[in-house]
Design brief:
463 residues; alpha/beta; 4-stranded parallel β-sheet; binds zinc ion
């Protein structure tokens, strides 16, 4: 089966056929940088990182564009409350997002454009819309005229214009021809930053900037547009309307990840704060947090609980345990070994990560049996399969990303422990058990736990 993806627009799973053979273009609505990210924000980054890795592994040359919304109402409000310029807030939080993406192993996007760097492109798009009769300037603002696009507007979110309420995106509704018209551009207000346009100074509307940046980097028609399910309306509906009304084909597939919910309660401020990424990676290691976020299907909601997080960490440690032990026996892992067919089928079926990880756990179970039997050939095959599958998911414990600090000292410690273990073996051979036990106890005092296996003694640091 080839890759199939759920397309929100078609409300169905469709075969993925790219605009250009061998290439895949992907736009993801990234951060609005008014605050540092919590795990709800980063979930989308992890989900689409898995998609990007899978497209790459499937042979596509991927262009991945993830934007930064560095100007909007909330950023301006936070800056005013702190008494600092808007860009201080935007820069600080963008750094927090970049750190969080990096920490959770999300590969950097091909391009990461910022809204405020693309005002000329937005002006051109507004000019095209005004020329075609789909937008108008009024009172310093520029609005999209929804009635001019009545037949098409609402098709992504599956609703009719007649049933929609006003956009409620301006203080002065009297400028609008129709309350459902939405702002492409917001005219100057006291104390707010502005950029010049033919219709007067102002700042970008949120929807317009994504249309301008997506088509600048991916072309007028591109493959996949992604984001959280909460963005379908109005943000994505408006992006689609603007771009298609201007004559662009825009995205051919719309993919949306589910939300992360906090039990039955709303994400209260105190609880929300404890879910910030720096705090989360104190509860579990970053790779375990990634496993927690990547295991559920991207379209299903996650009900956050610390219990489930710790269970996920324990499940990941079972996989890691096999990889660590197997890698002590097998030194050359075949990175080109084929992926198990069931794993490939799972990811091709709308990125089925739960089924894909079930395959990983099955292979790990077989691998542990092979290790216990001392079947080196089987261990080599199963280790290669496991690591190659984990690589696709960004979860390979041996990837440089996840190596712990000081792990480059491991070969040195290995050699020192080997000397001690040789002496212990010699002591046992001459039946000097007191000396043998003393060596083991001294290693234990240094935090080194020795275990006898079919492949000889092995050691690890006690936890
Ligand atoms: Zn967007």
């Amino acid at each position: 089966m080839s890759l199939h993806l759920y397309d929100t627009s078609a409300r169905a799973i469709r075969e993925f056929v790219p605009v250009q053979a061998g290439r895949a273009s992907l736009y993801l609505c990234g951060a609005t940088v008014q605050a540092p990210p919590h795990i709800g924000h980063i979930r989308s980054g992890v989900n689409f990182d898995v998609l990007r890795r899978w497209l790459t592994r499937s042979g596509y040359d991927v262009t991945f564009c993830r934007n930064v919304t560095d100007i909007d109402d909330k950023i301006i409000r936070v800056a005013a409350a702190e008494g600092v310029p808007w860009f201080v807030v935007a820069e600080r939080n963008q750094r927090a997002f970049t750190w969080a993406y990096d920490t959770l192993g999300c590969l950097p996007p091909t391009v990461e454009p910022r809204a405020t760097g693309h005002v000329p492109e937005m002006i051109v798009l507004m000019e095209r819309l005004i020329e075609r009769g789909h937008a108008y300037a009024a009172g310093g603002d520029v609005y999209f005229n929804v009635m001019s696009y009545e037949q098409e507007y609402g098709k992504l979110s599956n609703q009719k214009l007649a049933n929609m309420r006003g956009a409620a995106d301006t203080d002065d509704e009297s400028c609008k021809g129709d309350p459902r018209d939405f702002a492409l551009w917001k005219g100057e207000k006291p104390g707010e930053p502005t950029w010049p346009t033919p219709w007067g100074p102002g700042r970008p509307g949120w929807h317009l900037e994504c249309s301008a940046m997506a088509t600048k980097y991916l072309g007028p028609t591109f493959d996949i547009h992604g984001g959280g399910i909460d963005l379908v309306f109005p943000h994505h509906e408006n992006e689609l309307a603007q771009s298609q009304a201007a004559g662009d084909g825009f995205a051919r597939y719309w993919m949306h990840n589910g939300m992360l919910k906090i039990g039955a309660e709303k994400m209260s401020k105190s609880l929300g704060n404890s879910l910030l990424i720096p705090d989360m990676v104190q509860k579990v290691r970053p790779v375990e947090l990634r496993y927690y976020l990547a295991t559920p299907h991207y379209r299903s909601a996650i009900d956050y609980s610390e219990e489930a997080l710790l269970e996920a960490a324990a499940a990941y440690q079972r996989i890691e345990g096999f990889v660590t032990r197997a890698a002590e026996v097998i030194h050359d892992v075949d990175a080109d070994a084929p992926l198990p067919q069931a794993f490939v089928d799972a990811l091709n079926d709308d990125l089925g990560t739960p089924q894909a990880l079930a395959v990983v756990h099955e292979v790990v179970r077989e691998g542990n049996v092979a290790l216990a039997k001392g079947d080196k050939e089987a261990v080599a095959r199963l280790l290669a399969e496991t690591q190659n599958m984990l690589d696709v998911l960004g979860l390979d414990p041996r990837a440089p990303q996840w190596r712990e600090a000081g792990s480059d000292l491991k070969p040195v410690v290995d050699a020192l422990v080997a000397v001690a273990l040789e002496q212990r073996k010699a002591a046992r051979a001459r039946k000097d058990y007191a000396a043998a036990d003393a060596i083991r106890d001294q290693l234990a005092a240094a935090g080194i736990v020795v275990e006898d296996t079919p492949h000889g003694a092995r050691w690890e640091l006690g936890r």
